[in-house]
Design goal:
The chain is an alpha/beta fold. Helices cover 42% and strands 19% of the residues. The protein is globular and about 30 Å long.
């Protein structure tokens, strides 16, 4: 299985990538939403199953990325999990309404991250739904 980690923080990308790799994912990375769309286009023959998406990024933010993927028929099956410092209830509602499947607020524990992956049915170690 493949995952795409989208975050403008290199440190956060590496941390999320490490956790996903430990679960058995092959991980792609992008520093903003536009770069992520470019990565998806370059990997259209083997798209990721999951993308973790930060909200606050340059060029194209996470909400704009979610909206763009939901408009693209080829990307509608991509599971999106917001992983962000945006903790306002209104922001959470906006992201979920735009098409995100889950929402995890930074900082978070490894256990909370894995719990979200489990909830989505996308943990290769537990079998995929």
């Amino acid at each position: 299985m493949r995952a795409l980690v989208i975050d403008d923080s290199r440190t956060m990308r590496l941390m999320l990538a490490r956790q996903l790799q430990q679960l058995g994912y092959e991980v792609l990375q992008a520093g903003d939403g536009q770069e992520a769309l470019d990565v998806l286009a370059a990997n259209s023959d083997d798209l990721p199953t999951l993308a973790t998406v930060d909200w606050n990024m340059p060029v194209m933010n996470g909400l704009e990325f979610v909206q763009a993927t939901r408009k693209d028929p080829g990307l509608r099956d991509l599971t999106l999990m917001m992983v962000t410092t945006e903790a306002e209830q209104g922001q959470i509602v906006r992201a979920l309404a735009a098409g995100a499947h889950e929402y995890l607020i930074k900082p978070f524990s490894v256990e909370a991250f894995v719990d979200k992956i489990d909830y989505l049915g996308l943990n290769p170690q537990r079998g995929v739904a």
